[in-house]
Amino acid sequence: MTKDIATVAGGGPSILPDVAAFRLVVVEGPDEGAVFELEVNGPRVLVGQSAVCHVRLNDLEVSRRHASLEASPLGLRIQDLDSTNGLWVDRVHVFEALLTGEELVRLGRTQLQVEPVLGPATPMPAASSFGHVLGVSERMRRLYPIFARLAASDVPVIIEGETGTGKEVVAEALHANGPRASGPFVVFDCTAVPPSLVESELFGHEKGAFTGALTTRKGVLEQADGGTLLIDELGDLDLALQPKLLRAIERLEIRRLGGDRAIRVNVRVLAATRRDLDREVLAGRFRDDLYHRLAVARVELPPLRERRGDIELLAGHFWSEMGGEERLMPLALLQGWENEPWSGNVRELRNAVARAIALGDLHDDRRPRRSVDPGPPAGVSSDNDTVERLLSLRAPFIETRERLLEDFERRYVERLFAEASGDLERASVIAGIGKRYLQKLRAKHRG
C-alpha cells in the first residue's frame, strides 16, 4: 500500500513492529536481478547513477541523484530529488511517499519491487554525541554508528551539508576517534585562499619559486603527513588544479612549486562541500575522476530544521560554553529558537546564543525565565558599563548589537586562553569548539 505523506501526517502512521529492513529487487531495467537492502533505523541513502548512491543504477534515464530512501519503523520513505524523469509508485506519480512493502517503484527504465524483511528491527542508537558532534534527534543518532565505522577506517570521505551544519566538526571527530588521532589534523579551505596561491598552499613551494617566495614552505598535504587533511568546500576548487590534486592523492606524493623531487606523503583525505557535486560534474565544473576517487564513502549532515529535539541541547551547550548558566536561559527565547527556520543551521544558532548572552538584560524582562535574577551576562561587568556606553552612542540597533557581540567574543577569548595557559588544544576542549574556528576568533581579536 502506498501512502501519500500528506495523508499520513494527518491520519497518524502506524508502526511496523515486525519489519527489520526493506529489500529492493530490480525486476526490470539494465540492473535486473540486483538486490539492495536497507535496515530500519539506518541512515538516509540515495538512489541514482552517482558513485555516492547506495542504490546505484546503470540506467541512463535515471538521474545521478534521483531519489532518497529512509527506512524507519513507520515504513520506507521515498522522496524525489528533482529528478529529470520523475518517480512513480504503483503507476502514481509521487514526489514523496511512505511505503510499507509490496509496491512497485519506477524511475527511468528501472522498476524496483519493495519487499519487507521480517525480524527484529535494528534498535535506534542511544548515543547523544560523537566526539564534539552533538544531537539527540533520530537523524543524528542514525549517523553515529556510521561515524564510528568511518573513523576506524582510512578511506576518503565526502561530507555534504548546507552551510553551518557542522561539516568541519564531523571531520575533526572522525580524525580524533581514528588511528591517526596522534597525527596532525589540517584544514584547507578552498574559499579562503586567493586563486593564485592555492597551488602553493596545497603542494608547498621552494625558496625563490616565485616572487615573494622568500623561504621554503610545506603545503597542507605535506603538513598533514601521518594525519588527516580536510579539504573544505571542495566544490570551489579551481578546475585546473583538480587533476594535480587527484594525482597527489592517487600516488601519495607531491612536488613543491619550484622543486625537482617527489615527496612521499601519508595522509587521509576528507572533503567537505555545501555544493551538490553531482550537479557540478554534469555542469563541467568538477572532474568526474576526482569525484569518484574521493567519494569512497559519503556522509550527509541534515539541516538543523530537520533535527527535531536538538535545538534545546545545542543551545544549552553553547550557552554554557560561552559563560552563561543554563538554568538562567530564558524559556521564551528557547521556545522562539525552536520555531526558527535556521537557514544558517548550527552556526547561526551558536551566533544567536552569543548575541543573547552579550545583550543580557536587554531582552524583554516580561518573558518567563528559569530564574528570577539572571545576573550579569558573561563577559559584561555587573554595572553594565559596556551596554550603557554603547547605548549612549545612540547607534543603530544592528550596529550596537554587533559591537556588543564583538566585546563579548574578545573578553571570552582572552579569559579562555588565560585559563588554558595559551594552549590551543586545551582551549578548544574547554570551549567545545573546533581549533580552526577558535584560531580565527583569536586572530580576529588580536587586531
Q: Keywords, please?
A:
about 35% helix; disordered N terminus; alpha+beta; globular; about 450 residues; 6-stranded antiparallel sheet
Q: Secondary-structure map with pairings?
A:
Layout: E1 2-4, H1 5-11, E2 19-28, E3 35-39, E4 45-48, E5 55-56, E6 67-72, E7 75-80, E8 87-89, E9 92-94, E10 96-99, E11 104-107, E12 110-118, E13 129-130, E14 133-134, H2 138-141, H3 144-152, E15 157-160, H4 167-176, E16 185-189, H5 198-203, E17 204-205, E18 217-218, H6 220-223, E19 228-232, H7 242-251, E20 253-254, E21 263-264, E22 268-273, H8 277-282, H9 288-294, E23 297-300, H10 310-321, H11 331-338, H12 345-359, H13 385-392, H14 397-419, H15 424-431, H16 435-444
Parallel strand pairs: 4-5, 15-22, 15-23, 16-19, 19-22
Antiparallel strand pairs: 1-10, 2-3, 2-12, 4-6, 6-7, 7-10, 8-9, 8-11, 11-12, 13-14, 17-18, 20-21
Helix pairs in contact: 3-4, 10-12, 12-14, 13-14
Plain-language structure description:
By secondary structure, the protein is an alpha+beta fold. Helices cover 33% and strands 21% of the residues. The strands form 6 sheets. It has a 6-stranded mixed sheet. The N and C termini lie far apart (63 Å).
